Amino acid sequence: MLKIGVRLPARFDDSGEYLADARAMDSAGVDSLWLDDQGYDPWLLLASVAAVTGRARLIAPVGAAGGPDAATLANRVATLAGLSHGRCVLSLTGAGADSVASLTALARSLDQRVIVEVEGGRHAQAAARLADGVVGVDDSCEALKASLPPLLRARDEAKCTGPLEVWARVKMPPDREQWRQMLRDWEDAGATGIVVPHDPRLLDQLRNGDEDDDRSDLQLAQG
Question: Of 20, 200, 204, 222, which is the most exposed, with the fewest CB atoms less than 10 Å away?
Answer without folding.
Answer: 222
